[in-house]
């Protein structure tokens, strides 16, 4: 539990340290500033245009067929709408959590299923970003920047499902 809390603190600190807008700037000096800077506006507009032109026209088809949206993933990747939080030393953009939320919000407007396919890769990336050394980060995260692939995150246990806080299984080294 303490490790999970530490990881969450690191993740939160990282999201604010890479943000382009400081807490104390703007109209709201005592809280987070939600005014978008020019880069954030461009990211939001790009995601909005992508959703309008590429996602909405095919969303119902993907929902009906259950087919995985690889073509959409490839297009989103080519525009930089995936993997935005990967560190810059791995070739990524190292966007803040807020920047990622701007993209996710636009994608979800078009289709929550396709948004999940695009954003769920972050579940597999986060442990490597938070706890991986530089070599591991370059090896595993660098590939996600170089080609349109997705990371996987799998966990299950009776009584916990995908709730990692509820996992009771332990690894014990013997011998």
TrEMBL record:
<dbReference type="GO" id="GO:0070991">
    <property type="term" value="F:medium-chain fatty acyl-CoA dehydrogenase activity"/>
</dbReference>
<keyword id="KW-0560">Oxidoreductase</keyword>
<dbReference type="InterPro" id="IPR013786">
    <property type="entry name" value="AcylCoA_DH/ox_N"/>
</dbReference>
<dbReference type="InterPro" id="IPR009100">
    <property type="entry name" value="AcylCoA_DH/oxidase_NM_dom_sf"/>
</dbReference>
<dbReference type="GO" id="GO:0050660">
    <property type="term" value="F:flavin adenine dinucleotide binding"/>
</dbReference>
<dbReference type="Pfam" id="PF02771">
    <property type="entry name" value="Acyl-CoA_dh_N"/>
</dbReference>
<dbReference type="GO" id="GO:0051793">
    <property type="term" value="P:medium-chain fatty acid catabolic process"/>
</dbReference>
<dbReference type="GO" id="GO:0005739">
    <property type="term" value="C:mitochondrion"/>
</dbReference>
<feature type="domain" description="Acyl-CoA dehydrogenase/oxidase N-terminal">
    <location>
        <begin position="37"/>
        <end position="146"/>
    </location>
</feature>
<dbReference type="InterPro" id="IPR050741">
    <property type="entry name" value="Acyl-CoA_dehydrogenase"/>
</dbReference>
<dbReference type="InterPro" id="IPR006089">
    <property type="entry name" value="Acyl-CoA_DH_CS"/>
</dbReference>
<dbReference type="InterPro" id="IPR037069">
    <property type="entry name" value="AcylCoA_DH/ox_N_sf"/>
</dbReference>
<protein>
    <recommendedName>
        <fullName>Acyl-CoA dehydrogenase/oxidase N-terminal domain-containing protein</fullName>
    </recommendedName>
</protein>
